[in-house]
Specification:
The structure is a homotrimer. Chain A is of the alpha+beta class. Chain A contains 8 helices and 14 strands. Chain A has helices at about 35-45, 55-60, 70-80, 80-85, 225-230, 245-250, 265-275, 365; strands at about 5-10, 25, 30, 90-100, 110-120, 130-140, 145-160, 170, 210-215, 220, 280-290, 300-315, 320-335, 345-360. In chain A, β5 and β6 (about 130-140) form a beta hairpin. In chain A, α3 (about 70-80) runs antiparallel to α7. Chain A is globular.
């Protein structure tokens, strides 16, 4: 160019002072689930429910084909909200009342909108506050129809851009979003038993006992693959993928290194626990509450446990029952002299994730 | 939970004393081949046969679409047997009579069963023995049909859980499994020559000369990507993906680090040798014997060579011929003072893989 | 084998003396775009144009489904030419008049041919010369039709195999290849505005101002993932994937380490700049010139800027306009005492890529 150009630097995302109760964001992009996305995440997470692995099995249960595991459906939907809601967040505080509706298949296009429910400035930290939001994810059905696939709330701690700016504090009631789990009909004429060898034999509704805690045997080490996994979800937050930014001022960032996007341990914990808890799940119903309790870095190995909190019948579905669980994720870090009781010598156990999770599970009486 | 929960730890996989001759395992899960899985492995392996790269070429040869390369078909089928048969194995000793049947396409769902043929306790090591198995992989065809895609035997060295437990030693005859290669008809009205520029011109049946050894030019370095590649195959063995387990007691594990799943060099050796050996293959027929002769780790670079052992006509197919080959994989390790004759100063060549492999190859007379 | 086999080592690719003006290469393989390939690259590059993310949006604009981003279309086409043209190249010097035609969709099979336009030996370096080529990529359409998807020229610096061999120097005129951009019709009856929230609101034709330079905010660190990304494109050049070759003689190779294939920063620069420049692009039209100006290695973080060089109407399309841009890529390297003006203390900014790029962009007047 013949003379010095005018430089443009765009701001991305919103800050605390940009939100107000009742405001609605229809998020950009939308995302079509391809077989590439489906396989990358389903297999990364080590999910073992055959509904997400074997199309013959899924169709025989009344689904249209391979079913997105709940963790992937959640990540596709959730990540659409990041730029508008949490690009300038310090931390995601809590997942609330995360409900599942229509199943997500390969080929579905997911679009998401979010309503701001509440804003509360921090009393002690003038540059921060908490934003409470309600999000709804829909998929297109045919030419013009649509179905709700997920609805949830979350609370997120967001920075102010200008400490002096006015914050529009307040709180409104959430909308009543219809998001009922779609469960395929039980069809007595089908030979479900002929498929029973394809899932674990000890994970039917009858097998779960409240008051027990299952220590899942498998662990999985996270590598620098997390950078690509985060990008595939359209999460562009720089703390996950921009090493130069970290190198310029490591002390500004948690652990002084790239941090793994919370969605990665979220799906991995669901997957690692699957063989013992969800191999015969027909659908996840609701995550009443969930949170990340410690950061994860490349090189860490993730382990999980599940507490069985309760079990109950499911109205109108004698073939199914509901188990109420708490999914817990942890890792071990070297900590000579600071070992805790659950860790071997030289190591400390660190809880990283907790999710209260209700699952609709098949009964052996009807399926095996 | 209000009181300390009862802790449940599940055992996965079987031990030497759990097997008996004649026992049949119908393996869990099953696996649908998606375009994500297809592309990940086909491209990782650097395969160059256009049947697996170019759908127009594949259809013009009489296939339904892109054809799974033999290494991928094998890995999808084989990995389904790992949890039941070799989760508690020390080593996979030998692949035997591994035959290919129906081609595997994107969308096919593969399910596998395994019969225990023999069990032999080790005379010198009371905690080990050899299990000899026969596995058959089928795909669904239409609503209720099925076709055998692969059949094979293998011998695997398996640990006992309890050294004092009785072993049900014995050996039975293998079943006669029909698994004939599906070869598309030669159709003289098709203009195969119009496609001949898409494959290497010097790899027709006429080009192979028994008694030659082809040193394939390409090498490929393995990275920590092997962890995700192993998970995508449903192989959950912890020695491939759980760094914490290794760190707790490195001396217990080969090389004191995560070991690369043997399936990874298996497909990579097939792919690296493809441009010189299998660019004009129409199908792999049988792997009479094969074994892994040294472990592979992240950072190693894999190279290959192929010995042409023989060639012969194929009954009823004047357009094709069979070449009998031995595929060899190797790597180089730094070994100051221990160099061997095939390696440069400071390095030692280490054989990692050997596979006796018969391939049906197009004749130039009919196709180019 | 009973006696020592005869050893065969094949030469791959062509050398300077193998080319002559007018020569035509119909390249091997061809490549079908799967959903695995599509997702891997689209998401790696962090592209944000919904035409490549959301099939509902793409169909509503008159496309058949998800549209390959221009960088991916280019890489699939370009990489097919590597073995014949640049396997033995020292450097790719320039991309010239790279034009886009028919859109590329999942399922399309791309085949490419290249004509040698010119050969010029180096006057100062007897083992090198410049080859000027013209390549055309076509996709199959239906049973027997085809459409040009891209046409381009490039200049590449190629080694001689034998310094004494004669070089067939000369230069011929390029062919006139028809490769006009396929732009979906504007249909006034469609409710485009109902989709406008899915793309960035400030990237319509009206928003661009010649003489400005946009510093895109996002950076992305490259990991060893580049090895697999290169293989997925059928680029088999050993300098990208063979660590052993580098280790044998590091001083022979740029940086003494594996170098990242230029196609990787090419797509990444397009993607990182997308939210500010191409979110409302309907098609890339032409890359008049482009070049890689410095190498990239694993661990580097890529940043981009775009200069708006000009803007103009597009004949017959009042709904669209053309913006002429220069896309620039850069990275920062530690350089204590050698900082340049655009870099913070201890760092030096290094330009890695430049591409002159004309894009057809939607007008707000018609779409939002």
């Amino acid at each position: 160019m013949s003379e010095a150009p005018r430089i443009i630097r765009k701001k991305t995302g919103n800050f605390l002072e940009d939100f107000e109760p009742g405001q609605v964001f229809r998020h950009k992009l939308g995302k079509t689930v391809t077989e590439g996305l489906f396989t990358t995440f389903t297999e990364f997470s080590m999910t073992t429910n055959p509904l997400s692995k074997n199309a013959r099995y899924a169709r025989a249960h009344g689904f249209d084909g391979l079913v997105c595991p709940p963790g992937l459906a959640m990540l596709v939907a959730f990540s659409q909200t990041v730029e508008d809601i949490s690009e300038n967040a310090r931390a995601n505080l809590e997942y609330i009342d995360m409900r599942f509706g229509a199943p997500v298949y390969v080929g579905d296009s997911i679009e998401v909108e979010t309503k701001i429910l509440g804003i509360r400035p921090s009393s002690s930290r003038p540059n921060l506050g908490i934003v409470h939001v309600q999000s709804t994810a829909r998929k297109n059905v045919g030419e013009s129809g649509e179905a709700v696939v997920m609805a949830w709330q979350r609370k997120v701690q967001v920075y102010k851009d200008d400490e002096a700016a006015e914050v529009k504090a307040g709180e409104i009631e959430p909308d009543a979003i219809e998001c009922d789990p779609w469960l395929p009909d039980y069809d007595g004429s089908r030979d479900y038993k002929a498929l029973a060898h394809l899932s674990n034999a000890d994970t039917y509704f009858e097998d779960f006992e409240p008051g027990t805690r299952i220590e899942h045997s498998r662990g999985r080490t996270i590598t620098s693959e997390h950078i690509a996994l985060t990008a595939i979800l359209d999460n562009t937050s720089q703390v996950h993928c921009n090493q130069y930014m970290i190198d310029l001022d490591p002390s500004q960032y948690v652990g002084g290194q790239l941090i793994v996007y919370g969605g990665i341990p979220f799906v991995l914990c669901l997957g690692l626990s699957c063989p013992d808890v969800a191999d015969n799940a027909i659908s996840d119903l609701v995550y009443t509450t969930g949170r990340h309790t410690a950061p994860l870095f490349a090189g860490d190995t993730v382990f999980t446990a599940t507490e069985i909190l309760g079990k109950r019948d499911l109205d109108g579905r004698p073939d199914l029952g509901v188990i109420e669980t708490r999914l817990l994720g942890h890792k071990f870090v070297r900590a000579e002299g600071e070992e805790n009781e659950d860790a071997p010598a030289g190591w400390k156990k660190v809880e990283i994730f907790s999710l209260d999770r209700a699952i609709a599970v098949k009964r052996r009486s009807h399926y095996a």
